[in-house]
Write a structure and sequence with these properties.
single chain; 7 strands; 242 residues; Rossmann fold
Length: 242
Amino acid sequence: MHVERHGDPQGPRVLLLHGGGVAGWMWKPLREHLGPRRRLLIPDLPGHDRSAQQPYISHDETVSGLVSILEADGAAPTAVVGFSLGAQLAVLLAAERPDLVDRVVVISAQAQPTPAPRLTLALLRSASGLARVRWFARLQAKELFIPPALLDDYLRTSAAMTSQSLVAAVGENIRFAVPDAWRSFPGQALILAGSHEKALMRASADALHDALPGSSLHVVADAGHGIPLQRPSLVARELEQL
């Protein structure tokens, strides 16, 4: 995986995991609010942007790659911030490797499987080429709250993503459920969801919160499925308080 590094090499380590269909560039607004003292690791997940040549296979495969990145970077404890697809990966990483993760911010993670996933994926396969059509990609960017300054990044990422990676990533996303090991994660956990998100996303936030005693849940007023881009200063403040 391609990984960008920012901030103080000796500072507290933070791993930022982007959502499906975007890439590490989506964290630029958050970076502006965090300041230079943290050590940021920002991968482009398999199948996305500068990692587009590496197909997305599964969440388990991706988590294994993220573990390798953290272990190669050193043994320091890590705060993991994940959005949407990346939030599911953050949950899995925290649940499976609490020795590497001591704090986690889970933003807009679906944690209840979508009914009829095969039908959903069949429709996605038939329409996957639309992601490379600029007018359609622009509509999707609006739904994801992509700011104008990052629109070219989004269009590039959409054009580079293969149908194979798109279907694999979405398939993992819509089948995701709260892992058993999440219930015993010993670190700090904050779960965020937007008040304007779909009922499934808000129910998923409740499920993650209920499964982990001691976790915190914050429903962000007047936000949709795009909190890191809509409210980057809020995400920065919440991270600072963990």
